[in-house]
Design goal:
With about 180 residues, the chain is of the alpha/beta class. Helices cover about 30% and strands about 10% of the residues. The chain is built from five helices and six strands. The longest helix is centred in the last third of the chain and has 24 residues.
């Protein structure tokens, strides 16, 4: 078959339904037996679910998305310059009251001027802040966020589990 021999029509004639068994789409005309969809003039609006509250109406009533990502506490270069300390880390910032706790994420932002050289050890800093720190003769070292120390309750629980495990292993070896 060649391209010019294709029999292509621009408009396909509509299927004639409900014209008897021999026509292929007779009797119920492809609508099924009974129900809302089989009746003449029936057209359900988009999203209609038979009287049940539709999905697009149900969803806004659910609780919204809440991000559990821990946001960093921001410190500016101007705040660091006002500290008058050469070595800065999360513990120093917490002692001075610039951050809530030494165990939070801290990020240095580049607003403000820095004239003295500082050795900064914090989890994060913006590119402009790192450039300003290094141009002043200081250094920035990215460190991991400080982990909170384990509470006495957790350590006692871990110790209890360890003793139970060691006792179980001792009894299982004694049985063999």
């Amino acid at each position: 078959m060649k391209y010019h021999e294709l029999n292509v029509t621009s408009h396909r004639s509509a299927k004639r339904v409900g014209r008897g068994i021999a026509a292929g789409q007779g009797k119920t005309a492809g609508r099924g037996t009974k129900g809302q969809g089989s009746r003449t003039g029936s057209s359900k609006k988009p999203g209609f679910e038979g009287g049940q509250n539709p999905l697009m109406q149900r969803l806004p009533k659910l609780p919204g998305f809440t991000s559990h990502r821990v946001r960093p506490e921001n410190i500016t270069l101007a705040q660091l310059a006002a500290l008058k300390v050469k070595a800065i880390d999360a513990k120093v910032l917490a002692e001075k009251g610039l951050i809530t706790s030494p165990f939070v994420n801290v990020k240095v932002l580049g607003s403000g001027e820095l004239k003295q050289a500082l050795a900064i050890k914090l989890p994060a800093a913006s590119a402009s802040a790192i450039a300003a720190i290094e141009s002043a003769g200081g250094s920035f070292t990215a460190t991991a966020r400080l982990a909170r120390p384990a509470t006495a309750k957790k350590t006692s629980r871990k110790a209890k589990k360890a003793t139970i495990k060691s006792a179980e292993s001792a009894t299982s070896t004694a049985k063999k």
